[in-house]
Every structure is written in structure tokens, then in C-alpha cells.
Design goal:
The protein has 20 helices and 26 strands. By secondary structure, the chain is α/β, with parallel strands linked by helices.
Amino acid sequence: MTLEEKLGQLNVIAGDADTASPAQLALVRAGRVGGFLGVIGAAHTHEAQRVAVEESRLKIPLLLGYDVIHGYRTIFPIPLGEASSWDTVAAAATARAAALEAAAAGVNWTYAPMLDIARDPRWGRIAEGAGEDPELGSAFAVARVRGFQGDSLGPAHVLATAKHFAAYGGAEGGRDYNTVDVSERTLREIYLPPFHAAIAAGVGSIMSSFNEIGGVPSTANHWLLTSVLRDEWGFSGLVVSDWTSVKELQAHGVAESPAVAGALALQAGVDMDMQSNIYADDLSTMVRGGGVPEATVDEAVRRVLRAKVRLGLFDHPYRGADIAHERAATLTSEARRLARQVAGESIVLLKNDHGLLPVSAGAKRVAVIGPLAASREDPLGPWHAKGDPTDVVTVLAGLKERAPQGTVVRYARGCSVTDTSTAGFAEAVGLARRSDVAILVLGETDGMSGEASSRSTLDLPGVQERLLEAIVRSGTPVVLVLMNGRPLALPWAAEHVPAIVETWFLGVETGHAVADVLYGDVNPSGKLPVTVPRSVGQVPIYYNHKNTGRPYSATDHFTSQYLDLPSTPLYPFGYGLSYTRFRYSDLRLSATKMGRQDTLGVRVTLTNTGSRAGTEIVQLYIHDEVASVTRPVRQLADFRRVALGPGESQTVELTVRSQRLGLYNQDMKFVVEPGWFRVYVGPSSVEGLESRFEVVAGN
């Protein structure tokens, strides 16, 4: 290979409207491109790949990447919503279904899953991850990687990318692309575990993040990308930059020219440059001048070629993608059934006073109100790949389809999502007054979360809360259905609205899933993967916080508190209601002492004491009572989804792995220290039964 051809293998560029332009295909012929993003569809990918393997000198096939985040054409719930299911089996299934559709369209590489822990709901990309907890995030990381890649990266699978490495979710002020300033201990204990789990699951690629850590941008961070990722963790796959993040080293102020930026990134450990074109255009002179060793280029090229070998591209460059297969594999009835199932599992029942839900069969006049009730675009959420609004079942359509015979379902928009007009209030209030129940569908547009979509408030946008207040004053019982990409701080609603349902953005089967839950065909089982604040002023707020030297006390003013607001959240991590009731009893530990390499068994009896079948997510938390460094008040250690019929009991078995008890000590060494731990088992991060065990020296 010539130097230019080597550097071409490290170059990823964006296609033009789903295809490669003639000028870009000329670059492929010249060996100046190693991969595309955004060249999709069997016809377009076939042509780009044909030029690479038939018309270029070296006949090296292309990586064809795309942001298949929560579905390709069949759009599933956003990852934050799916994480509310706490169902990793379902998460693997949706990733597998998305990979099948994408691969049939010629895509062989996805820029997912996003593994960023997010403790600040102002950050728009909280929608793309599994929430605030590293244990839950790690479980979903493994599930999604295995779903995308399968066992052997066959033709129905795609190479997965764990992103964004690292701590991108810790952006100051919740503002996308902003500075991240975290200690190494927090980095290792909170932000890095999902990436480590993804690597253990065999993820094929890693994407460097836009942000800096400790003054060094991730894309130029040798310690992060080489010392930790490769030397410590043994990652052998490829690292790709985020979009233009190599070029952005200049804006960060650590590179005075594109060539220097490229040299910094390549030598830090970034194998492929996405969209900056710096490796291909600017590095050859620097390499020939001795500024970058050609051996460094060679090692990056080997990683790229190994990824292509792993995908089988040299033997089967098209991987079976053709127009007929693409059509047959897209938006199948099986995929829609899965989308409906997972959407139902992702819904969280936040409040249900007086059993207002499920909607009574006697409610013959149903008002559906709100700007999102009839929306087809917004339920797709951000980053919805090739999702088509015409595929979406709206909330209004789903309710009309499901309502019992003889029920009249009427609709009033009331207001828009973001403007200040109240002209539609009178119609909406009048409709509510003539109805037995009012279902309000409020929240955010799909464009209000995702990349570059941070918010400074967590309220309902526009005049939606005023509409809600007006409908509540009508006297008609109100069900608030939230559609959004981040937790919203809605203390007035929590106090005054009798029933609240968090649906996030549920994808193509939104209307069916919402109707399934509201009418009781599906008993809600979702639990929050994030803490919901009372006010944006509490942010960042997360369940696994430290105790401080002065934890809150109602009898002592000089403790950690707000003057004007409780310190507790509106809804805690792990919280979610059901149409039935569950009782926890008989908490038992397999031992009261365990060695530092042992596993502790934890058993609890769970009983469905209600009259409906339901699924409970049993959660196990631990707390290290005394350690050499401060520890969180609680840490999730294990969880189980348990389905029970009415009156049924089951002994639920959970485990505490010794690794989950470890910490980074004052010398930044990972250790499991002897001492006493508390264990909590219950329905959320703030409830449950409690016991203690001791970790002893030795073993």
C-alpha cells in the first residue's frame, strides 16, 4: 500500500443524500476512502461497494456506517425509554431487529450503542442512553452490542460502536459539547463501566467523544485511548472519531493546524477520522517529514482492515444486501409486534390516584387533548434513522382503535408544543367538560432532545402547563400522558393531576402501546432509569450521590439542603407503579460474611397481592458503611423482572458480585475492602427491605 492508500483507509466521509456522489466515488477509486457514513439503501451501498472492490487498485471493501440508534425503519422506543423496561432481553432483540433491517439496506456499521451516563437532564442526548446508573447502563451496553453484532457478525448483523468515549454525558451546564471536569475516580466508577462491559461483550469499535477531560480533548487523549482502552482493557478493535472532532482540536486550542490536529489524534489512538478529511489530506507530509511514525499509521490501518475481515467484507462485500431483500426485511409484522411489546414495557406509571387507570369501560365520552396526541413525527424521537412518520400509530389513532364499542373519542389540539397562543384553550376545555375523562398528551417535540438540543429548563414548553391547569379546573378527571426525551420537572402536575404516565418517545407503535396501557390490556411495569427532579435548580440530581459530612436533617438547619425546596426528587430512580400491588418479604442472605472474591446470594419473597397479573422489577442496592474513600448512599447491584399472577408468590434470587463492592482507593487502585455493607431489596432506590453482611479479609 502507498502511504496515501493507507491514510485513505483511515478516512470516513459523509455521503450525499443517502448516496456517494460522483466526486466521492472518484476518491474511492483512488483509494482515498475507507468508509462512508450515510450511504444507505441497497442500491446506493451496492454501487459504492462495487467501485471499491472492482475499480480501486487494492480492491478493499468499504465500511458503510449509519446512526442506527433505536431502529432503522422500524423505530423502537428511544434508548432512555427502552431502559425504563429494565428488560435487557428485549433490548438485545430490538438491536437485532434494527441490525437486520440496516444490513439488508447495505449498512455494515452502526454508531451505537451510546453508553454515556447522564446525570443532567438538560443535556439533550440523555435520550440516547440508558440513564444515570453504571450498572444498568452496563447491562444495556452488553445487550445492545450482542443484539447488533450477534455471535459472529453474520450478514444480518452490523459492527457496533460504543460511544462516546468518554464522559460526554458529564457536560457542564448540561450543554452539549461542553467541557467535562471529573475526577479520575468518578470517571472510572461512573462513566467508564458501560464501555468496559461493551468491550467484554466484543464490541467492534469505539467512538471518541467531543469533550475534554482534565484539559485534554478525548480525541487527543493518549491516556484514555491507549493507556486505558488498549493497554489496560485490551481493546483490539478500531477507534473512530466523532464527526469532525479531529478538526475541532484546533478550536479546543491544542492544535495550531489541521496537520497537528491529525497527528495528535492518530498518535493518541484514533484510527479513523470522521469527516475532517485531515488524515487523508494533511498527514502524508507530516509522516514523510518524520512528525508521525509510519508504523503508527500501519497499526491503525491494520485495525481497520481487521474490522473489515471480521465483517466478512473481503469474501462477501455486499453481504447479501439487495433491493428485494431490503424490501422484504423492512417494517415486518414481526418487527412491529416487537416494537409494540417493548413500547408497552417502556411506559412508566408515575401516579394513579383513586385507580383512575385503567380507563373505565364506563367512560363513554373520552376527550383526547394536546399538541402531541395526533403527531406522527414526534413519536419517532431524535436520531430515527429511516423512520417514516407515515408508519407511526399516533396516540389518538391508538385510543380510537382500542376504545370499547360505544365509546366516543373526540380530539382538540388545545395549543402547539412551543408557541404562546391560547386560542385553542376554550375548545379543549369545552370538550373536557363534556367528557368522562380527559387524556392530555403533552411534552416535547422530537427535535427538543438529541444532539445539540440542550434545554435550560425542564418545564413543559410553551403554554402546555397552562392548558393542563385549565383542563384540571374543568373538573373532569385528567390523565397526563407525557411524550419527551428527558425527565421533566412538573411539580404542579404531580400534585394536582390524578394520573400521570411517562411514555418518552415510543416509536412506530406509540399509539397502540399507550392505548394498551391506558385501557389495561398491558399492566405497566416500567421503572425510571433516571431521577426526576422537582426543579431544574436541583440538577444534577442522581440517586447514587455521596452522603456529605452534613447529610440533611429536618431538625438541623446547618445541613445540606435548599431553603425553598426539598432535597429529595419528584420521582426517584427505579420508581414506577403498577395496576396491581407487590409485597416484599423474607429477605435472606446466603451468608453474613463473604470473602473479597466471593459472590453473595440474596433471596426475597415477592407476592402479587392485587387482582391483576403484573410484572415487578426487583432491585438490589448496596452501601459500603465505612471505606477509605467516600461511597454512594446506594448503588444498584442487581435486578430482575418478575411476572406474577394475582395472589402468586415467588422467591426471587439475586446476587452481589464482589466486583460490585469494589472501589478505587486513595492510590487509584481497584480494591474490595473488608468491612460492613448494607443491602436493600425493593421496588425503587428509596424503598425496600434491608440487611447487612460483612466482607472479610483473605480469599
